[in-house]
Amino acid sequence: MVRFWSTLFLMSICRVLLAQQFSISLGVNTGIMSSRTIDDGISRDPRYKQYYNVKFAPIGVNIGINYEYVGLMVSPTVINVGQNAYLLNTSNGQVGKRNINERYLNVPVAFKVHLVNLVFLKISGIASLSAAYLIDGRETVTHNDSKLDFPKEVYPILPADYHVEYDGVAVPVVDKYVIAGKSDFRSLQVFAGAGFQSDWDISNSWRVTFDLRINYGLFDPRTSAYISKLDARQTLYDMPGTRHDVFTQLSVGIARYIEFDKNDQDRKKKLKGSKKGYRVMPNNKVKSPRPRG
Fold first, then answer.
1. Cβ contacts of residue 164 below 8 Å, gap of 6+?
2. How many Å apart are CA 218 and CA 221, to the nearest integer?
3. Dist. CA 39–CA 78, nearest whole Å
4. What is the CA radius of gyration of the chain?
5. Which of 69, 116, 188, 254 could form a disulfide with 123 if both were Cys (CB 3.0 to 4.6 A apart)?
6. For 264-275, what is each residue's pLDDT tens digit?
């Protein structure tokens, strides 16, 4: 019985969508992002002070289908995730940096609800779920010769040129010491996102889009093998603790409408642009302005 009603419900939704006008668009986008690494180990470690920085989301593509009130969009994009931190000595002075960078091919599938639906402007709420495939991952630390507050549990694995003193550990200059490499990160991550998108029709064929979205990584990005090494205190510059990546992304894109299903006389009168590209379906009546997204 549950299966019957579920099937009936899905069929009803499909029937409603098919009865509405729709448009299909294809485009490219780029943007910037600010990433936060929520790491219990870094938060408890007196050697680090995290700071925010802006990273570049080089380029992506997007394809969307939109009805009058809702829409779907797929937008594969390369993203750079990971929050950096200053390295502090025992006197809280900045003596170096810890850099975290994970590069993914992120493939989000977004569901859109059109909150504002004007002739030339559409504002939508977005909920998305994405699969992110690891391209590269690297976590390094660089610092001057100084005195650092290492946990006593790692004293047995300190290198020979690290000297334990009464108020800390005297360390030499270190240049890009690898805390974790690509093999220490999961090959697949899942992000859940939410935000808003605005679409501006600059002609009958072209649209400019602004997309602001917050994304949360559902899994610890590191492998179980690396986490086991953390728990066994086998890492010099890292402490045990769960980790999740969060990033806010602002994307700007341009897209071209490649298909729509109604002869839209209202838009044709109100928007400037090419008169080509209108495809009139047989026996269709003119309805409300063509959906955009």
1. 155, 158
2. 9
3. 23
4. 25
5. 116
6. 444 444 554 444
